[in-house]
Amino acid sequence: MLISVEEEASMITEKSGAAAMIPDETPLFDPQLLEDIDWSQNMVSFSPSISPELPGEGLVLRPLCTADINRGYYKVLGQLTKVGDVTAEDFIKTFEHMKKTENYYVIVVEDLNLGQIVATATLIIENKFIHGCAKRGRIEEVVVSDQCRGKQLGKLLLSVLTLLSKKLNCYKVTLECKPKNVAFYEKFGYVASDETYMQCRFFE
Ligand SMILES: CC(C)(COP(=O)(O)OP(=O)(O)OC[C@H]1O[C@@H](n2cnc3c(N)ncnc32)[C@H](O)[C@@H]1OP(=O)(O)O)[C@@H](O)C(=O)NCCC(=O)NCCS
């Protein structure tokens, strides 16, 4: 049986799994979820007016995809914390795991003119046995590139993920933040809890 070069290449990549290791535009979750958010329930004001569909001139808000590793996604995260040495393979494997669980909602704002990610935030959904097998949301890794701060993108990300957690039927959504950022999160209805955040750190 004769097979074409393309078929042979596809058989090799299927066998080795290499096809999955090429960054691409597949979204982490269904983008329709963002379109379905009821923006009228948003708690903060935007002046000038922006929204998930229209985040600003030349900007788009969407789910993370693996191609974002080549659009400076880590450069933005690096303005929040240590990101470590991550290969494209590590990134794609983690992305695939997150996608499979359907509990990770990483959103990004891309500047289409620059082809660069300028802001990101993550919502993680935890399934519980308590509260009638309810879901709880956690917001993590909220960061806007220092060149784009003060353009309401932080507010937009927080509003979107807070509304998304409600839409996904979470009974609550929580986050941890530095004292200097408390006032920022209070805008969205978050209140400081009387519980103490504790941690046992194994490595940086
Ligand atoms: C905190 C952060 C996400 C805010 O993003 P941003 O895009 O610059 O903020 P926005 O333009 O959306 O902010 C708009 C509003 O929040 C206020 N605000 C911004 N940062 C604030 C802060 N740290 N504390 C209190 N208010 C803040 C602004 O004054 C503005 O108020 P207004 O709407 O009443 O005019 C951004 O500064 C950032 O990435 N910081 C570094 C990383 C970080 O600290 N992340 C949070 C981890 S908990």
Care to describe what's here?
Belongs to the acetyltransferase family. GNA1 subfamily. This protein is an alpha+beta fold and 204 residues long. It contains seven helices and five strands, in the order ααβααββαβαβα. The protein has helices at 5-16, 32-35, 73-77, 88-101, 130-133, 153-167, 182-186, and strands spanning 59-63, 104-111, 116-127, 135-144, 170-174. A five-stranded mixed beta sheet has the order 1-2-3-4-5, with helices on both faces. Residues 8-18 have low confidence and may be disordered.
The gist of it:
It is an enzyme of class 2 (transferase). This protein is α+β, with helices and mostly antiparallel strands and 204 residues long.
Termini Cα gap: 55 Å
Order of strands, widest sheet: 1-2-3-4-5
Number of strands: 5
Question: What is the average per-residue confidence, as pLDDT, rounded to a whole number?
Answer: 92
How much strand content do the residues show?
Answer: 15-25%
Give the SSE string: HHEHHEEHEHEH
Gyration radius from CA atoms, angstroms: 19 Å
Distinct helical segment count = 7
Shape: globular
Structural class: alpha+beta
Q: What is bound: which ligands?
A: coenzyme A
Largest sheet: 5 strands, mixed
State the helicity in percent bands. 25-40%
Unreliably modeled segments: 8-18
